[in-house]
């Protein structure tokens, strides 16, 4: 009986979380439903290719009702919903038969969209986790890493033969953040490849509507990542190092630290999010600067604009497309009634292209005065813990790349990742130096 359950449970999980939603969304898309069209336009469609859809969603009103959730691409409403106490992160578990079935089929390993992940916990637990983590991951601690990040960026570029075509995602955009976060969290150099591979394989776990094959690969990666993380944390407990994760293991509030489960969930999220989203920021930023040479020239004339340029990259092509919040009781958003238990899909990328806040939102402008008002790091109590680290890595990584190789040219063959929530390049082929003359 146990063996039958072991086989049946993943099938049920896939059906509830992916198979049935996937079918329903595709049918709704054929009827023109905006939310379903957003789903089907995801995957390999670049974010900049979806701006017409964002405009259409916004034209329906500050909040509109989709086939399955409420939608908003309004900057003001997205920020409001993310900050309100009558909305919680995550999806309210189903009641009755479907809820019992979901609980029966639940996984034994950690999932980023299941408690005690910081993504889906709420006060008081979320407050306690976040306070302990922020004691360790301070802005000062991140700035202290700037010099080491510059060294890593240059070391990585030193290993690349600039005369040959190169995939920048594989050799640079992916390697820089995984090396930085691995050093922060005390991951030995020989295990960084494992972390990068497992993190990339698990990244579609935030998506809905995965195929059966994708689902099985994601669950396998999550289970392997959880097992690796448990072993890594045990080693740090026995032999703490001079790294931020060792400090998190030892962190206490009123004499109480994180439990083993909470520590694994928090460390796993920090580790995965610490490089997965930054890979996208670096790749998206490289493409934008390459395709807008006049803006790159502005940065060369005034390097003090680099921090603002990173925020403009985050605004126009964010690493994360959207998130969601569930109403805890009957309420209203922008005058629209939202019943308890209803999900509001907050489209971060759409909010970043709201012309009410960003004039000419499709124009990439490294001097944009309010670029930092983007919502790419979310807002409210779930504002991204790694925002300062991502900004610093984006600035150092992109500036170093274009300073070292001002004639960098992208070449055909770029592909986008087949994920709907996380947005970035799978491959970004380039030549770092011009073609040799013959």
Short description:
Keywords: Heme, Iron, Metal-binding, Monooxygenase, Oxidoreductase. With 438 residues, the chain is α+β, with helices and mostly antiparallel strands.
Describe this protein's structure.
By secondary structure, this protein is α+β, with helices and mostly antiparallel strands. It has one domain (2-431): Cytochrome p450. Helix content is 52%, strand content 8%. It has 18 helices and 12 strands. The protein has helices at residues 2-30, 34-40, 51-59, 75-83, 96-104, 125-136, 139-143, 146-158, 168-173, 175-184, 192-202, 212-238, 244-250, 260-291, 293-301, 306-316, 348-351, 387-404; strands at residues 64-65, 70-72, 87-89, 166-167, 323-327, 331-333, 336-338, 343-346, 409-410, 415-416, 425-427, 429-431. The strands form 4 sheets. The protein has a 5-stranded mixed beta sheet. A hairpin with an 8-residue loop joins strand 10 (415-416) and strand 11. It is globular, with a radius of gyration of 22 Å. The chain starts with a helix and ends in a 7-residue tail after the last strand.
């Amino acid at each position: 009986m146990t063996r039958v359950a072991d086989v049946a449970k993943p099938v049920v999980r896939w059906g509830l979380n992916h198979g049935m939603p996937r079918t329903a969304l595709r049918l709704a898309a054929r009827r023109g439903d905006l939310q379903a069209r957003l789903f089907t336009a995801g995957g390999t469609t670049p974010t900049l290719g979806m701006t017409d859809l964002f405009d259409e969603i916004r034209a329906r009103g500050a909040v509109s009702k989709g086939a399955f959730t409420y939608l908003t691409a309004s900057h003001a409403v997205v920020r409001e919903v993310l900050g309100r106490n009558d909305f919680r992160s995550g999806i309210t578990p189903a009641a009755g038969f479907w809820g019992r079935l979901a609980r029966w089929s639940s996984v034994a390993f950690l999932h980023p969209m299941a408690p005690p992940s910081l993504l889906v916990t709420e006060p008081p637990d979320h407050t306690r986790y976040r306070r302990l983590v922020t004691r360790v991951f301070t802005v000062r601690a991140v700035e202290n890493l700037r010099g080491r990040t510059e060294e890593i960026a240059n070391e990585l570029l030193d290993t690349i033969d600039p005369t040959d075509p190169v995939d920048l995602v594989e050799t640079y955009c992916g390697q820089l953040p995984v090396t930085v976060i691995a050093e922060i969290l005390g991951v030995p150099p020989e295990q960084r490849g494992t972390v990068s591979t497992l993190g990339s394989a698990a990244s579609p776990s935030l998506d809905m509507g995965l195929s059966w094959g994708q689902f099985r690969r994601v669950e396998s990666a999550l289970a392997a990542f959880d097992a690796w993380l448990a072993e890594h944390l045990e080693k740090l407990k026995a032999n703490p190092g001079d790294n931020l994760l060792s400090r998190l293991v030892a962190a206490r509030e009123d004499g109480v630290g994180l439990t083993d489960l909470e520590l694994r969930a928090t460390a796993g999220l920090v580790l995965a999010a610490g490089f997965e989203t930054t890979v996208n920021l670096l790749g998206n930023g490289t493409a934008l600067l390459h395709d807008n040479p006049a803006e790159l020239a502005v940065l060369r004339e005034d390097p003090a604009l680099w921090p603002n340029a990173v925020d403009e990259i985050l605004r126009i092509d964010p690493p994360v497309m959207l998130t969601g919040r569930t109403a805890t009781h009957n309420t209203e958003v922008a005058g629209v009634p939202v019943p308890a238990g209803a999900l509001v899909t907050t489209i971060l990328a759409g909010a970043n292209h709201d012309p009410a806040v960003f004039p000419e939102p499709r124009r990439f402008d490294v001097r944009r005065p309010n670029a930092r008002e983007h919502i790419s790091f979310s807002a409210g109590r779930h504002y991204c813990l790694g925002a300062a680290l991502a900004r610093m890595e984006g600035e150092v990584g992109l500036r170093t790349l274009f300073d070292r190789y001002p004639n960098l040219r992208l070449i055909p063959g770029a592909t986008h990742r087949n994920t709907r929530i996380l947005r970035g390049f799978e491959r970004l082929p380039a030549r770092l130096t011009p073609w040799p003359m013959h």
